[in-house]
Write a structure and sequence with these properties.
Order of helices and strands: EHEEEEHHEEEHEHEHEH
Largest sheet: 8 strands, mixed
Radius of gyration: 21 Å
Distance between the termini: 49 Å
Structural class: alpha+beta
Length: 250
Amino acid sequence: MLDDWIKPLKLRMSIDEFHRLPRRAGCKFEYFNDHAWITPRLRRRHAVLELRPMRSVLPSDSRDIEFRLLDQLDWDRLALLFAGAFSDHPVLENLTDSSRREAAADCLNTTRSGGDGALVQEASFVATASDGKLIGAILVTRVERREIEHPMLLKGSAEEGVSVETVPHLTWVFVSPWQSRRGVATSLLAGTCHALLASNQTHLYSTFVEGNESSMLWHWRNGFDLLPSIESNFAKMRRTAETANHVEAS
């Protein structure tokens, strides 16, 4: 749903100034009519975590933070937390505060209604402060494995009546910017891992936007393995086809 909220940033400048702009992987840079146009482009990367027991990494001064299963009453309070957590996201950072909250509510409503796959209730958690205020959340859904490994090949590939394998997917994990870098997200992940292991799951998949360095580092620190990109998969398929054609020609 983030794709629906992509807004280009328009800046008046000279062509020399445009060439001196720092580039970031998650944006497209264009120049015309004396303006720079910077448009976020959501190129997604997928990762997978082999499930194992994890420990909470909260520091000793964070004993006032509690973790519990997501409750239906939490949904209405998640949008504000989501908007704050992703205020520097390549897409949401260019929105006004009100639009950012609207985008957050839109994304969460999609997840709640099953648009991101069936919610895995027993593996979705929230973190709360001593006053009951939500400071973090992790939402896990079930998605088709092929949606992650071969997303460009989905259309028209399903056979009627054939069951499709689904896997747990970390759809959202977000923490209040005032509580960042304290281990809250990793502790939420630990709860999810324990819950999935208890239901005999072996892997947890995840997706993040290319260019979101903090998310990429978080996945790496927590043991996720990066899956080949779509471009890599198609390059491999192309090389295989070229090799087969060469053998036939020989």
